[in-house]
């Protein structure tokens, strides 16, 4: 058999949306606006939680961390995407692609774990109200957040090492907005079955573990709500969980659609639209969902605006 010349890839070329040059400027301005709103809303939410004493509760403690992670999560992806649109393609070195893949996986995993922790917090608040202060101590809060960071760090490191032990050769063009697993797998050469299995297993473990915690927590919450005799009491209790449920549905819905499906028969354009949604739109929507559906946040915001007008 004749020996084939194989050129190993030392850099990657992101070419998402470059097949439609007329869309570049409008998309650039749109995504820039979304990114600025994401920063403004999430940093504003963090400042509001810090400034208002009534928001110094476990639920808002976790929400503040979620807002910070959304800033990091979006910042790991969107600036690079803007560069791709502005320059009609962008070249990433092997190390930059590796770093971006790790950061995306790390921050995305933390979001998963934080949403699961927030579901547990709602379970304790609704089902164990008399023990809430005893269970959700400051030490417990920091322990849960530290656990989310530790678990995310380990899973992201394993996925990064496994993904980038693959051999990439030949074509180095990634028709995507960042260095993500599905487009990278298209560039591999040789047998990558073992690495793919490891990566997918870790992804499934993170998503399923978090979803089990969320589903079990809300199962107990629903049972507790049904037992409340008054309609008003049931509505008030459910309203404390509604925002979290909306965020969970958006976040996990898009992740499951993107990563836990059969990729055959799906176009790169479809994947790009989905990836834009979970990397740019969801981090922007999260603080809006929590502020528009939460009386405590709206009241805190009203106080801040009143103080600003008086000063």
Automatic annotation (TrEMBL):
Keywords: Cell membrane, G-protein coupled receptor, Glycoprotein, Membrane, Olfaction, Receptor, Sensory transduction, Transducer, Transmembrane, Transmembrane helix. InterPro entries: GPCR_Rhodpsn (IPR000276), GPCR_Rhodpsn_7TM (IPR017452), Olfact_rcpt (IPR000725). CDD domains: 7tmA_OR5-like. The keyword Glycoprotein applies. The chain crosses the membrane at residues 22-40, 60-81, 101-120, 140-158, 197-226, 238-260, 272-292. It is a multi-pass membrane protein. Residues 41-290 form the G-protein coupled receptors family 1 profile domain. It is found in: Cell membrane. GO terms for molecular function: G protein-coupled receptor activity; olfactory receptor activity. GO terms for cellular component: plasma membrane. Belongs to the G-protein coupled receptor 1 family. Putative odorant or sperm cell receptor. This is Olfactory receptor. It comes from Enhydra lutris kenyoni (northern sea otter). The lineage of its organism: Eukaryota, Metazoa, Chordata, Craniata, Vertebrata.
